[in-house]
Design brief:
5-stranded antiparallel sheet; 505 residues; mainly beta; Jelly Rolls; 2 domains; Methylamine Dehydrogenase, Chain H; 3% helix
Length: 505
């Protein structure tokens, strides 16, 4: 790319270019993370790195369903177009559909709610409460006596667990009969309801914390510190435990379990993990955390969540991104941690976000929906046209912070004269520069040029170099890329940046 220079005449320059970006990395000290190529960031808020290594502002979200200005703590598609959600007001938890059907005071305030689809209805769970359901017309309550905390559908059965008095038991409904469990069962065929008690496998001090399904016939049973995988058969007497897939890694919350293609993602106390298919030895669990690069950050998010059972997640299969929502102290705040692995588990990218403080989400048919304190919002893709209006759009400030950049030499003092940033999009952003001690050096304003024929978010967007005088002396430099707090319209993609310094004689 072309390079302008503000160097004095006849002065030769060294060029130090940073590109091919990666997501957040906290695995090393802030002073020991310079790579230039494949450069990590120290912090990313409301922006992400895509598969090309380009840094882009998160897309906007628009208001899909205006709720009652209370946090939405669970939601689920009940059809390809419609949703049902749990709304927590000042005194209770209500169940509401996007068509206006309500069940007020369904649960006490603070109740954790989970949902799943089975037999044409959304099944709704909360600890020590009867199973409820929604059929698109009204809410109902199961006639079964079971009171689980969560459940999943598998092999034409509803599997439920998280019982107050039976914490190590999984109950399975009769085939195609979601209201008949062992207490109601009279059938004797292989289609009958039955249960599994895993106390002897895990130790009675541990409890079941979640259930997950994958590959159509496998059930993952999670405890605090262990994961068991069962291989299912239409004949329940033929079910077996897959000993190759059982590891001492547990799940902190049922709501974090999400299908990602043929894999199953979940959160442990140590990090994000995956159950996946291995060609060598069948089903395996990624014992090493997929989030090692951000381990201190991840563990801080877990540790500061008042009720870890309320942590939830959603997987966006279009962008191959796993979003985890950590409720903060206070009724309205959450922190979003997102993991993108479009390039596979060997090249994951992490980012943080707080737009609308979502607590839950669901994804279906290319639509990512998030439950917030203002209602249900749908996340737009990056091809949306801002000219359509911004009345119902929401977007938070983009902030991207680098570690200390040494321009290839930790010890040397640099005499810089030019800063160049390569970017595309519309609007403007700012670049704040600090030396290795955190002292302010400069703040630059970049106004993006809308070039003729420039595609706003094409796979190969036209880009331009923006060149600024940068007459500073330093050993190291830290950069902060940001939009204004009130700016909801600027679409920003940063491809690379570079420093031109005086060349040694």
């Amino acid at each position: 790319m072309s390079r302008l220079s503000y160097a004095p005449i006849a002065v030769k320059s060294n060029e130090n270019t940073y590109y091919g970006f990666r997501g957040i990395d906290r695995s090393h000290d802030i002073t020991a993370m310079e790579t230039k190529e494949n450069q990590h960031f120290w912090n990313l808020e409301n922006c992400s790195v895509d598969y090309r290594g380009q840094l882009s502002r998160d897309p906007a979200s628009y208001l899909y369903v205006e709720a009652s200005r209370f946090p939405i703590t669970a939601l689920r598609f009940w059809s390809r177009e419609n949703l049902v959600f749990a709304e927590e007001d000042s005194a209770r938890v209500n169940l509401v559909s996007d068509t206006g059907i309500r069940l007020d005071s369904a649960y006490e305030k603070g109740a954790v709610v989970h949902m799943t689809n089975f037999k044409g209805r959304v099944r709704i769970f909360s600890p020590d409460q009867a199973i409820k359901d929604f059929n698109g017309t009204n809410f109902g309550t199961s006639t079964a006596s079971a009171k689980p905390s969560f459940g999943v559908a598998i092999q034409r059965r509803l599997a439920i667990a998280g019982f107050k008095d039976e914490p190590n038991v999984i109950k399975f409904s009769r085939v195609d009969e979601p209201n008949i469990f062992t207490d109601e069962e009279s059938d004797t065929s292989t289609a009958k309801a039955f249960f599994i008690d895993i106390s002897d496998l895990i130790g009675t001090a541990d409890v079941i914390t979640g259930l997950g399904t994958f590959e159509a016939n496998r059930l993952a049973v999670f405890t605090n510190d262990q994961t068991l995988v069962y291989i299912l058969d239409p004949d329940y007497t033929q079910w077996s435990l897959d000993s190759r897939a059982n590891l001492r890694i547990g799940c902190i919350a049922h709501g974090t379990i999400a299908n990602a293609g043929s894999d199953l993602l979940f959160c442990s106390r140590r990090g994000i993990h995956s159950i996946m298919r291995s060609e060598q030895n069948g089903v395996t669990i990624a014992e090493a955390s997929l989030s090692e690069e951000i381990e201190p950050l991840y563990q801080d998010l877990v540790r500061t969540t008042p009720d870890q059972s309320a942590i939830k997640a959603v997987y966006d299969s279009d962008t191959q991104t796993y979003h985890v929502f950590f409720p903060r102290k206070g009724n309205q705040l959450t922190k979003r941690l997102s993991m993108n692995f479009r390039q596979g588990y060997e090249a994951v990218n992490f980012q943080l976000g707080d737009t609308l403080f979502p607590r839950c989400g669901d994804f279906l048919g290319g639509r990512l929906m998030m439950g917030t304190s203002d209602g249900v919002y749908e996340t737009l893709d990056r091809s949306f046209s801002i000219e359509t209006g911004t009345a119902d759009l929401r977007r938070s400030q983009m902030v991207a912070e680098t570690p200390v950049l040494w321009l290839g030499d930790f010890m040397a003092t640099k005499r810089c004269h030019t800063f160049i940033v390569q970017a595309s999009g519309t609007g403007r952003f700012f670049v704040d520069a600090f030396d290795e001690n955190g002292t302010d050096m400069a703040s630059l304003e970049v106004n993006l040029d809308r070039l003729e024929g420039d595609k706003l978010w094409g796979d190969q967007p036209l880009k331009a170099d923006y060149t600024f005088p940068f007459n500073h002396v330093f050993r190291g430099v830290m950069l902060r890329f940001r939009t204004e707090e009130t700016d909801q319209e600027s679409n920003i993609t940063i491809i690379s940046f570079a420093f031109l310094t005086h060349k040694d004689k």
